[in-house]
Design goal:
The chain is of the alpha/beta class. It has helices at about 10-15, 40-45, 85-100, 120-125, 150-165, 170-185, 210-220, 235-245, 290-305, and strands at about 5-10, 20-30, 55-60, 70, 75-80, 105-110, 115, 135-145, 200-210, 255, 260-265, 280. Helices cover about 35% and strands about 25% of the residues.
Length: about 300
């Protein structure tokens, strides 16, 4: 990755980064210019930079720039093609790089446009965990499988059917798991990766890393070029970043599963618990119908920040 040149929207924006201002947490929000995302952006803009302990940026990609990184008052754009893979991974790393170089912080949160964050509860949560060697996320898992070894798949399906006897795993998901297994086996140079059975990774919609973990990650990316190793950049960003963070040179982290502080909002909701930190607005993961998600996020902003908000 090229991370050498930085340009700013204006002198005023550039002046903001002459001194490394400290924040409790920096939030990086995966974004794009698709029309149906505008409501989500308006929701974020209502609160994203109104707390003195939190600095937030939208993350974009643009392959037609004359600089590696371009910064506005509320966005960081990386010079690459806008894409799910590897674009989201690259602009996340660019966001980490700029924030590490120009700001001081305790934690960084990577999230996306359709997620809602309750800042007061987030800050309270962070005040009660250690500041070093920390991951926080809604942990997800995948089995290590191939066409000739499906043992871990069978175990996962069996566990699912203990809760729902009709549970199925979509074929597309199974094929993805096989491909990810192949990539991770080569990445770790482990022909017997199936012995591990399960790979845990951070959910891309919400994961927090402590400052020292970000530093280690950037060292591996910028000095050791780890993203050029064995197609690791050609799998989803949350799986790829989780894989790099489990590379042998990394400090073993304390991992906090944030499921109890999170909500997957997949229908119209009227009431929300006060202790929620993260709400993932995703009604239909596979088909992209976002109307309900937009209504829910507007209502979340009204409840937690501004009862008069309209988008």
């Amino acid at each position: 990755m090229r991370l050498k040149t930085i340009k700013y929207e204006s002198e005023e924006v550039a002046n903001e980064y002459k001194e490394k201002k400290h924040y409790k947490i920096i939030i990086l929000i995966i974004a794009s210019d698709a029309p149906h995302y505008e409501v989500f952006k308006k929701c974020w803009m209502e609160y994203m930079n109104k707390n003195e302990n939190i600095k937030s940026f939208f993350l974009y990609s643009n392959e037609n720039m004359d600089t590696d990184i371009y910064v506005t008052k509320d966005s960081i754009t990386y010079n690459c093609k806008e894409s799910l893979i590897p674009g989201i991974l690259y602009k996340t790393i660019a966001g980490y790089y700029f924030s590490q170089k120009k700001l001081s912080y305790d934690f960084m949160l990577r999230t996306n446009l359709s997620s809602f964050i309750n800042f007061p509860q987030l800050l309270t949560y962070l005040d009660n965990i250690e500041k070093n060697n920390v991951w926080v996320s809604n942990l997800e898992l995948m089995p290590f499988i191939s066409d000739t070894n499906m043992k871990a798949y069978d175990e996962i399906l069996e566990n699912l059917r203990k809760k729902d006897k009709h549970a199925v795993i979509p074929e597309k998901t199974v094929e993805n798991w096989k491909y990810f297994t192949s990539v991770l086996g080569k990445f770790y140079n482990n022909d017997n990766i199936f012995l591990n059975k399960i790979f845990y990774f951070m959910a891309g919609s919400y994961f927090i890393l402590s400052n020292n973990i970000i530093k280690q990650l950037l060292y591996e990316v910028c000095v050791n070029n780890i993203l050029e190793k064995d197609n690791i950049a050609n799998i989803p960003d949350d799986v790829a970043i989780s894989a790099v963070l489990q590379w042998p040179t990394f400090t073993k982290p304390t991992v906090f599963d944030s499921q109890k502080n999170s909500l997957l909002c997949n229908k119209i909701e009227e009431n929300y618990r006060e202790d929620l930190v993260h709400i993932r607005n995703r009604t239909d993961i596979y088909y992209g119908n976002r109307d309900i998600d937009m209504k829910n996020m507007i209502n979340q902003v009204k409840k937690f920040y501004n009862p008069n908000f309209e988008a």
